[in-house]
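Table S2 (continued). Query chain:
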Amino acid sequence: MNSEPRRFEGKVALVTGGASGIGAAVVRRLDAEGCALVVVADVDDKGAAAVAADCASARAHRVDVSVPADIEAALDRALAEHGRVDVVVHAAGVDDPESKAAIARSREAQEPLDVLRGVGDQAWRRLMAVNLDGTFHVLRAAARVMVPQRDGVIVTVSSSAAFDTLIGYGPYAASKAGAQALSQAAAKELAAFGVRLNIVAPGPVDTPMAGRTPAGLRQSMTEAGARGYAAPEEIADSICYLASPGASNVVGAVLLSNGGRFTVS
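Corresponding output:
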């Protein structure tokens, strides 16, 4: 007997970044809770296909969120087949491994951090193209679908770094802070059309991306706050709450799901 709640019975959902980490956890939760379709949208098409294969209602669709036509095509297909899109979760994002490595080297050498001067144009543009531009592309495409139907829920994934960034990690924090501000502005605009948008801002989460963090830096991040790294499923719980009817009175909120880092440190 399936004991999962059925908050998303018959809903049509799309999850960016659905091939791994937080996105994959969200896909599995939406599928378990009754979605008629969950589009697993990710640039990693093999990973997306693997996640979709484990779910009853999921389908993989290759999407690079930095390419507007990709996200528009995925949403348009779901709309054409089902007549509506009810939930969009934007979990796609990239981190800044070069800055993480530079931070770790400075700490090991017990030298002042000198990261900013070494940030390359390509690294900066990658962060902005995926984290900031990608959020714009997803929000615009979702609005084009949901405003005419006068209904829908969007959840974007920000970061606690948007509030209090790790020293030396400015470019990543800037990309997430920009995406968060864009999401909050969009929430105010879309509310008039019956579209509800909220944001989750996690702290460190035990995803494959986080697994590439240098050991010393990972340890220091584990020690901050009341808890260590969150499991992807814990962040998926927060996201799916905001996407559910139980959060119908929550609009434009930023939910800090960061293990109490700002509370105890």
